[in-house]
């Protein structure tokens, strides 16, 4: 098993607090992890000390490392006085990166107490790695090799340490052996001979160890003699040192022998006492036990040697603090890791570089080639012309322009961009060819560019002007002629030509380019059906049931049956709402129908209204109404069938809801005249993704063509598609204007299936994951760089599809304007003057989502239906038992403080903590006699709690939480039900089981609702005389209380009631109170329900 090691590198401190009274400090850092502490050296009288020391800790439980924390305490080292605290830094285990991703970070020193004065920063590097265990055999051989004479003096102290540790190990192991032997002797009586054999074997082992030590000393002496011939002067000094060491070793050996003899004597005394108690023996078991003991002893010896070597190595590693060998293999992320990670990418505006518009992404170098046109090309076809095209080759990438048929002066005007990382050669080759279908293409010329001589262009520099280049020939390709106009430069993704260029990592397809989309401008169409006149009805002997049906594309709305009883002039005055999008090139079909029989309607007449003629309004003013003639369908020239009175208008004062309420990105009304001034700018840098999973197969292997889609307000952005990469890097930056801070930015990652669609047909883009960021949780002007986990719910459960790296910044134009926005209504005022019902809002939202998906799917390149629906979360209103449980746990977590307060109050009433109960009594009396302090105390308490929680505020944006979504503990059947279609496509047996489960859940809810209704009905029964005796008792009690309150002051009454409520348990009965017993006996309406 691999061992996880945590490395903490303490680099330096900045601007520490002086503590010695002389304007300086002698600082050192103490590192604490899992109860183990290590400290650095003391830097005397430095306020910005530099340590550069590394500490290594072995992680005991790697799975729980995310729940641990590394604490670094900075102290002022004074020998005469108490250590003075200079600050501390706490690093959560979930934010510790693996080796290779570590960065030097400066943490602001935190306080221990509220009144402490702390300042300064501490620069630390923290990371972890997994170390694989090394084989034991080569280590043994390395230890058994004799040491050289020159290094013998350096290795002897280590040998002394090893011997001391071996002694300790022998003492521990001998104690374990004694315990094991006692158990064996109790189970198997009479083992005298076995013990004698063990003693003999131990003596032989000791003799062997002594012989081996003597052999080692003899070898050392032989080597010394050989070297003494060469160096006579050093021989005497070495001998003296050797003699001193030998004397020390002999003394230690004598002490060891004495200790062993004392232990043996003690063992023999114990053994003699045990022998007297064990007289019965069995001769047959002696041989078997003797053999088994011999084998076990051999195993014990081997285990002892290995344990000694391992412990010696661990001791050596603990003593080494600065010299650490890192493993070359870095483990990948845990698949069950759903947490948000902090990153520190090299962004464009963070490392002293020139500030530009692309300061939230990493700078990517590209070689741009603009192919404009050519002239005077050679004739290669029989028709007296050529079919030229240009082919560009740079490293391993190549691309060609479209072919221009029958032209010697072709024009292309195309831009190509090659990433600098794909260049494996020093030359950019531009060749011109003549396309031939029947034979090999003919060569028309070439131009070469040295990459080191290509100029660099950085915006806002002007574009590089193209130049004419003479086409050169290649040996064996024939003569060439003509010129080609090109411009070649090196730039970044901030170049203006980047959006229109063919990029090397996109495969050259138009559908893979980055694109910006705009949602269609949607309006609410209000159709007010007032009345109708001169209708030609059918039968006169029955009461007519006339309704009006309005249809706009797939939206169909119907009025109720007319209110009045006049046959030819029905009256409705009813509003019908539709969703319409610009441009208004559609018609509304108005049909007047009469209900003839159940399920059968007869059309009286119809009319069509063009949306272009409908008036727009921006407030609640009345729009003039109009009369429209009805035509009878199925007749020639449209026979007159009456007329209908309508009022039509586009309501621009509403916000057309096309998103769920909890993830809305815009609250503005449709009419631009009602828009307020923007509050700031939202900038997002889509850096890249990591550890993506394969979504399809290509050439027999897993592959993925990933791209991102970001949506905020009416603006949608789509990055370019990076072909066949599990670690795509986009590095594209986009901006939005912000009109409301309480909105949500949504970013999704998808797999592009356009190539599969062209080959197979009908392939859909696969959703990889989604990230939501609420702008109100972001600090102004701060750049958030994080790696978000991409989580998707599959029928098999929640699955981590990879990570998405984003850089987000919310810039505010005026802080006061943002704070003022929190006091304004969330939606436009028309939503409150003429509110829409909840069913009406849900229906219109589904229609708006469908219209947005249809319009964006008609763009070029299209943004597909499944992508838009996934971004808008169209399935959020579907039934899901998992979401029901998640919402239930959310409610319980909200009510948990109330439950905790009730338990605390019960503890006070039960006097479980007498001191607390007494303090509550005193506080209660103070508040009763000074009631004017209640509200100030409550609000001051809330202020102090909020100020205290500021220290523990979230440092990163919110993200998808698998635990909060209840996606980790959901059963497969519940997930299968969630992914079921509407209507269900499951067999009847499965539907029956799920129906029974839903009935059981509904039965519990029904019981809870019945209990709540019963309690309310008991309250109503107090004065309703349904129980005459109970009502009589209650009104007499009310009269007595009224008289008591009239005589006794209110404060005295409150004090008496409070003291009675908080009385000691000795004066309390375990039975229910009189009031509760009386209330439970009151009648309810539950006994009257069938």
Description of the molecule:
This is C2 domain-containing protein. Belongs to the MCTP family. One of its GO terms (cellular component) is membrane. With 1090 residues, this protein is an alpha+beta fold. The chain folds into 5 domains: 3-135, C2 domain (Immunoglobulin-like), CATH 2.60.40.150; 366-508, C2 domain (Immunoglobulin-like, Sandwich), CATH 2.60.40.150; 522-651, C2 domain (Immunoglobulin-like); 681-877, C2 domain (Immunoglobulin-like); 900-952 and 969-1080, no CATH class. The protein is 33% helix and 27% strand. It has a 5-stranded antiparallel sheet with strand order 9-37-38-29-34, with no helix packed on it. Helix 3 (192-230) packs antiparallel against helix 4 and helix 12 runs antiparallel to helix 17 (1050-1061). The chain is flat and about 120 Å long.
Low-pLDDT runs: 137-164, 266-280, 282-296, 307-336
* CATH superfamily label of the largest domain: C2 domain
Which sequence of strands runs across the widest sheet? 9-37-38-29-34
Structural class by helix and strand composition? alpha+beta
Q: Quick one: how many beta strands?
A: 38
How many separate domains?
5
* Share of residues in helices: 25-40%
Biased composition (Basic and acidic residues): 134-147, 156-321
Protein name: C2 domain-containing protein
Pfam families: C2, PRT_C
Family: Belongs to the MCTP family.
């Amino acid at each position: 098993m691999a061992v996880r090691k945590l490395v903490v590198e303490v680099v330096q401190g900045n601007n520490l607090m002086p503590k010695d009274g002389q304007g300086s400090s002698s600082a050192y850092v103490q590192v604490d992890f899992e109860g183990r502490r290590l400290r650095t050296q003391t830097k005397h009288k430095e306020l910005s000390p530099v340590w550069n020391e590394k500490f290594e800790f072995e992680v005991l439980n790697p799975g729980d490392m995310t729940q641990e924390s590394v604490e670094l305490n900075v102290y002022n080292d004074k020998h005469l006085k108490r250590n003075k605290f200079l600050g501390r830094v706490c690093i959560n285990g979930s934010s510790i990166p693996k080796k290779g991703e570590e960065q030097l970070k400066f943490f602001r020193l935190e306080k221990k107490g509220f009144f402490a004065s702390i300042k300064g920063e501490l620069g630390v590097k923290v990371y972890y790695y997994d170390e694989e265990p090394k084989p034991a055999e080569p280590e043994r051989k390395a230890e058994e090799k004799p040491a050289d004479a020159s290094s013998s003096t350096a290795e002897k102290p280590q040998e002394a340490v090893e011997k001391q540790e071996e002694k300790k190990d022998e003492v521990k192991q001998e104690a374990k052996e004694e315990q094991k032997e006692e158990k064996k002797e109790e189970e198997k009586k009479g083992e005298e001979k076995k013990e004698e054999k063990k003693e003999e074997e131990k003596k032989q082992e000791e003799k062997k160890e002594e012989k081996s030590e003597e052999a080692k000393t003899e070898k050392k002496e032989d080597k010394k003699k050989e070297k003494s011939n060469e160096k006579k002067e050093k021989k005497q000094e070495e001998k003296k040192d050797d003699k001193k060491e030998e004397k020390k070793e002999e003394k230690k050996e004598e002490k060891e022998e004495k200790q062993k003899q004392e232990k043996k004597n003690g063992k023999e005394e114990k053994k003699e006492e045990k022998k007297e108690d064990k007289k019965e023996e069995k001769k047959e078991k002696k041989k078997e036990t003797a053999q088994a003991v011999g084998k076990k002893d051999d195993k014990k010896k081997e285990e002892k040697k290995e344990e000694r070597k391992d412990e010696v190595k661990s001791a050596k590693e603990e003593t080494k603090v600065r010299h650490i060998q890192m493993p070359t293999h870095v483990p990948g992320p845990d698949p069950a890791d759903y947490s948000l990670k902090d990153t520190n990418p090299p962004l464009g505006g963070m490392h002293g570089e020139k500030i530009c518009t692309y300061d939230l992404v990493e700078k990517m170098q590209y070689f741009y080639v603009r192919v404009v046109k050519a002239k005077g090309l050679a004739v290669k076809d029989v028709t007296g012309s050529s079919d030229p095209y240009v082919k560009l080759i740079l490293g391993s990438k190549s691309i060609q322009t479209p072919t221009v048929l029958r032209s010697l002066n072709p024009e292309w005007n195309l831009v190509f961009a090659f990433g600098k990382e794909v260049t494996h050669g020093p030359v950019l080759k531009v060749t011109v060819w003549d396309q031939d279908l029947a034979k090999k293409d003919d060569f028309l010329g070439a131009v070469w560019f040295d990459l080191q001589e290509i100029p660099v262009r950085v915006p806002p520099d002007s574009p590089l002007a193209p130049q004419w280049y003479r086409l050169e020939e290649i040996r064996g390709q024939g003569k060439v002629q003509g010129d080609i106009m090109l411009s070649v430069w090196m730039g970044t993704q901030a170049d203006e030509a980047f959006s229109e260029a063919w990029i090397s990592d996109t495969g050259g397809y138009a559908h893979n380019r980055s694109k910006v989309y705009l949602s269609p401008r949607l309006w609410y169409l209000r159709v007010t059906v007032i009345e109708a006149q001169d209708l030609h009805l059918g039968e006169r002997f029955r009461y007519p049931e006339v309704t009006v049906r309005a249809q706009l594309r797939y939206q169909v709305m119907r009025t109720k049956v007319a209110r009045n009883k006049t046959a030819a002039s029905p009256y409705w005055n009813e509003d019908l709402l539709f969703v319409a999008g610009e441009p208004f090139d559609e018609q509304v079909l108005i049909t007047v129908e009469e209900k003839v029989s159940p399920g059968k309607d007869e059309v009286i007449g119809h009319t069509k209204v063009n949306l272009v003629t409908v008036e727009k309004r921006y407030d609640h003013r009345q729009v003039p109404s109009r009369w429209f003639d009805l035509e009878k369908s199925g007749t020639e020239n449209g026979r007159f069938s009456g007329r209908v009175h309508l009022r039509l208008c586009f309501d621009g004062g509403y916000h057309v809801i096309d998103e769920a309420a909890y993830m809305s990105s815009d609250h503005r009304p449709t009419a631009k005249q009602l828009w307020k001034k923007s509050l700031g700018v939202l900038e997002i840098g889509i850096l890249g993704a990591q550890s993506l999973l394969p979504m399809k197969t290509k050439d027999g292997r897993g592959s993925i063509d990933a791209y991102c889609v970001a949506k905020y307000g009416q603006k949608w952005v789509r990055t370019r598609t990076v072909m066949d990469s599990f670690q795509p890097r986009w590095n594209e930056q986009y901006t939005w204007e912000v009109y409301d801070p309480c909105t949500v930015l949504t970013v999704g990652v998808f797999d592009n299936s356009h190539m599969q669609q062209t080959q197979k047909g009908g392939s859909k883009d696969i959703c990889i994951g989604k990230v939501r960021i609420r702008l109100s949780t972001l600090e102004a002007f701060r750049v958030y760089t994080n790696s978000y986990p991409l989580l998707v719910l599959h029928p098999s459960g929640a699955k981590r599809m990879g990570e998405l790296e984003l850089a987000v910044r919310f810039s505010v134009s005026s802080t006061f304007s943002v704070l003022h926005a929190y006091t304004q209504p969330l939606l436009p005022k028309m939503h409150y003057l003429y509110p829409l019902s909840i069913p009406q809002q849900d229906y219109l939202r589904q229609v708006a989502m469908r219209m947005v998906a249809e319009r964006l799917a008609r763009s070029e390149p299209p943004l597909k239906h499944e992508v838009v629906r996934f971004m808008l979360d169209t399935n959020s209103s579907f039934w899901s038992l998992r979401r029901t449980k998640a919402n239930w746990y959310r409610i319980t977590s909200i009510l948990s403080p109330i439950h905790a307060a009730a338990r605390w109050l019960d503890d006070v009433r039960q006097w479980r903590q007498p001191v607390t109960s007494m303090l509550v009594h005193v506080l209660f009396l103070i508040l009763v006699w000074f009631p004017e302090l209640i509200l100030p105390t409550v609000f001051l308490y809330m202020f102090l709690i909020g100020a205290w929680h500021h220290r523990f505020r979230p440092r990163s944006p919110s993200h998808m939480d698998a635990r909060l979504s209840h996606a980790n503990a959901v059963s497969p059947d519940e997930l299968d039900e969630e992914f079921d279609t509407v209507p269900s496509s499951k067999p009847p047996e499965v539907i029956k089981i799920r129906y029974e489960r839903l009935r059981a859940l509904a039965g519990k809810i029904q019981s809870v609702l019945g209990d709540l209704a019963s309690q309310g009905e008991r309250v109503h029964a107090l004065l309703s005389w349904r129980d005459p005796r109970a009502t009589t008792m209650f009104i007499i009690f009310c009269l007595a209380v009224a008289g008591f309150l009239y005589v006794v002051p209110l404060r005295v009454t409150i004090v008496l009631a409070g003291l009675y409520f908080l009385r000691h348990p000795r004066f309390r009965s375990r039975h229910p109170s009189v009031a509760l017993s009386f209330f439970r006996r009151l009648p309810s309406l539950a006994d009257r329900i069938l």
